């Protein structure tokens, strides 16, 4: 049984290590958005290159995150976590010195591999190291500090972009890794899962990542037309079908198809796809809208988006407690509708927009919607499957959210009619942004309809999330084993 106490020096070192590691991955999924206009100008990149700057990271992260957790269970969570930190730092260095958009995109894909290795390990190390009496508080502190990192990330990213330059948004990971790795090796105990056995589902992971990459490529290139986009779309669908076939035939698949036999689990993942597609598209385009159309600096744009994260950090725990009392159906219906209203309010954000009168109200409504739905969504995922599969269910839900976000970043510019040079033309970008917000709001309404039609209160004694103070916007908080049972 793990016996490290939170008040001990080793306990504090473990907490520091996991916070640093998860912050590296979190920064790379959120901070880059505010740097996109400057990256485009400096590298003379078109809109498609900016989409790939975001999506290359998300493709490998979403496709490999379940495999990363399995590798940690088998070979040692600390070992895989440290490899992920080093991998992410080296890839970040490559991003920081990239001479052109092609090298930057390739390095971003490598960053996603590092993120997939370290992200599941951050929480797993806490759960495997701390005494059960301290584990809940340790997870709460980890989640809270992660939320603070998510809040200050866009601010720091904007300051770096306006100051020393966008390359430092990536280079920031190098000193974080230099601090994190020696602390992990010295103070964090190794752990694994003795039940882990059998062969890894590498083929399933590769097919999943390839399907995401090909579909994303087809959507980004569809605006130009041509046979390449069509072939990529067909190949992506074929890879997705092959992924399903492989998962059905594997003895120990990465994503067991029978987990979707739970109607509740399937419904909540459909809600997740709708919600995080909208959120992923929103945060990608909003950072551009504020800079390209409204005229904000990178620092001002990053700071302007803080209210959503701050609201989640302050109120998510209370939202989770409310959902425990009334059940998830109402929060998972009302939350997406509030988010949709916030995005429709963003239609007022154009040239000369006032922050207090136009931007802030939209972000507050959006943030309240996110507060309402994130903790109940995670709790419902955990409560819709057997105890032994809670970690797997959470990983699938997290991967689904990230996949939805990357598909939205690829599809929204196409649906909204953004050309290759749209971010260089304020008028054209503003018109397309309005259409994109309509699409995002529509996806959220679909998610609310699924929730009201299918989601029901989980049975008594099911799971509730430990990561309640959650400030990230790229995906729901990733929950592993063991998790606490809901109080009766």
TrEMBL record:
Pfam families: MFS_1. Residues 14-459 form the Major facilitator superfamily (MFS) profile domain. The chain crosses the membrane at residues 12-36, 48-68, 80-99, 105-126, 138-160, 166-188, 200-220, 226-246, 267-288, 294-317, 329-347, 359-387, 399-416, 436-455. Keywords: Antibiotic resistance, Cell membrane, Membrane, Transmembrane, Transmembrane helix, Transport. It is found in: Cell membrane. InterPro entries: EmrB-like, MFS, MFS_dom, MFS_trans_sf. CDD domains: MFS_MMR_MDR_like. It is a multi-pass membrane protein. PANTHER family: EXPORT PROTEIN, MAJOR FACILITATOR SUPERFAMILY MULTIDRUG TRANSPORTER MFSC. This is MFS transporter. It comes from Streptomyces olindensis. The lineage of its organism: Bacteria, Bacillati, Actinomycetota, Actinomycetes, Kitasatosporales.
């Amino acid at each position: 049984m793990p016996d490290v106490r939170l008040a001990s020096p080793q306990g504090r070192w473990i907490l520091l290590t996991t916070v640093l590691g998860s912050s590296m991955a979190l920064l790379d999924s959120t901070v880059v958005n505010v740097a996109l206009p400057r990256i485009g100008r400096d590298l003379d990149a078109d809109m498609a290159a900016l989409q790939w700057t975001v999506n290359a990271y998300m493709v490998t992260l979403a496709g490999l995150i379940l495999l990363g957790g399995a590798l940690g269970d088998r070979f040692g969570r600390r070992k895989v976590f440290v490899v992920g930190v080093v991998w992410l730092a080296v890839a970040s260095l490559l991003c920081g010195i990239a001479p052109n958009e092609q090298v930057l995109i390739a390095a971003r894909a490598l960053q996603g591999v590092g993120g997939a290795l370290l992200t599941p390990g951050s929480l797993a190390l806490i759960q495997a190291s701390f005494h059960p009496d301290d584990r809940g508080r340790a997870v709460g502190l980890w989640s809270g500090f992660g939320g603070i990192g998510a809040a200050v990330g866009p601010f720091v990213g904007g300051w770096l972009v306006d100051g020393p330059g966008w390359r430092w948004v990536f280079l920031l990971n190098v000193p974080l890794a230099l601090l994190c790795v020696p602390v992990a090796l010295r103070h964090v105990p190794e752990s694994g899962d003795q039940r882990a056995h059998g062969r890894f589902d590498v083929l399933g992971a590769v097919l999943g990542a390839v399907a995401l990459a090909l579909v994303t490529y087809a959507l980004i290139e569809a605006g130009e037309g041509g046979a390449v986009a069509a072939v990529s779309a067909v190949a992506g669908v074929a890879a997705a079908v092959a992924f399903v076939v492989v998962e059905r035939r594997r003895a120990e698949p990465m994503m067991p198809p029978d987990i979707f036999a739970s109607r509740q689990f399937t419904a909540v993942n459909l809600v997740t796809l709708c919600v995080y597609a909208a959120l992923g598209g929103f945060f990608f385009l909003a950072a551009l809208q504020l800079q390209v159309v409204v005229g904000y600096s990178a620092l001002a744009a990053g700071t302007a988006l803080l209210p959503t994260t701050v609201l989640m950090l302050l109120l998510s725990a209370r939202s989770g407690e409310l959902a425990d009392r009334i059940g998830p159906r109402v929060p998972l219906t009302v939350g997406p509708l509030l988010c949709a209203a916030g995005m429709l309010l963003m239609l007022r954000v154009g040239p000369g927009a006032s922050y207090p009168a136009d931007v802030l109200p939209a972000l507050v409504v959006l943030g309240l919607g996110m507060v309402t739905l994130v903790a109940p969504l995670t709790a419902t995922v955990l409560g819709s499957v057997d105890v032994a599969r809670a970690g797997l269910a959470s990983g699938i839900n997290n991967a689904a959210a990230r996949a939805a976000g990357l598909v939205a970043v690829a599809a929204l510019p196409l649906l909204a009619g953004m050309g290759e040079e749209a971010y260089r033309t304020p008028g054209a970008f503003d018109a397309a942004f309005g259409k994109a917000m309509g699409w995002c709001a529509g996806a959220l309404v679909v998610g609310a309809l699924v929730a009201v039609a299918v989601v029901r209160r989980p049975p008594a004694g099911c799971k509730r999330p430990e990561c309640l103070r959650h400030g990230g916007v790229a995906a729901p908080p990733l929950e592993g084993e063991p998790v606490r049972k809901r109080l009766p």
